[in-house]
Amino acid sequence: MPPLAAAVAVPSASDDAKGGTLRITSFNINGIKARLPRLLEWLAETRPAVACLQEIKTQDQGFPAEEFEKIGYHAIWHGQKSFNGVAILADGVKPVEVQRGLPGDDSDEQARYLEAEVNGIRICNLYLPNGNPQPGPKFDYKLAWMKRLRARMAEHLAAEIPAVVLGDYNVIPEDKDVWSIKAMENDALMQPESRDAYRRLLNDGWTDAIDTLNPRGGVWTYWDYQAGAWQRDHGFRIDHLLLSPACADRLVAAGVDKEHRGREKASDHAPVWVELAD
Length: 278
What we know:
Elements: H1 13-18, E1 21-28, H2 32-46, E2 50-54, H3 65-69, E3 73-78, E4 86-91, E5 96-100, E6 113-118, E7 121-127, H4 137-158, E8 163-168, H5 181-184, H6 192-204, E9 207-208, H7 209-213, E10 222-223, E11 235-236, E12 239-243, H8 245-248, E13 251-256, E14 272-277
Helix pairs in contact: 4-6
């Protein structure tokens, strides 16, 4: 099993002054019913203040909220039968829902976006479309979705809202974020249009927490179930944590709970996390 690889933790003067950090996490769970034991195990071991989940793959009535209540987490969720679905869990407090579904297209019924206030921070949890096969309608939908996301994020910037926009972006931002450029060169995850849309978010003023602390790359968040990808460490980075300027000023550390990918019946993603001065 490859060793745990977490991002560099950088001390913060504000952290020292305030005496604590707030851990906000994202985890594409790839089916909450199938992975519930692993999910509860991860929550117990790491105890994040906020945990955003993607690909819960269940309708709203099937979400196991009571299992999280037992261990002190309150949840809101936006489900869909067999596909997609996102949820926000908060330790000891109820997330205050702000937005369900990404604005900008009333015809879009896919459960990919959920936004809430938690501990004074706007948490924007997303599961961005994969876009394969490309070219084609699925790739067009991906790019249109990213354009809508940028518009929503611009609203947060304009209002100077402390925000973390996190989740499975299904974008490999740069060549340094993939084990093999050639293996993924035709995939929607690293097409120039996908990368350009992601880069525009950063240029608007958002900070990629993991990339900021790991500028040389080589940090993976996803390993396919096929071809021994996990055992060979053939992964790439598609789960991202973007920070508004106010949150970027509070950045203390960011990383990947890589070890959890190697456990029995694990998701094909590993959890990613950021710590902000509290």
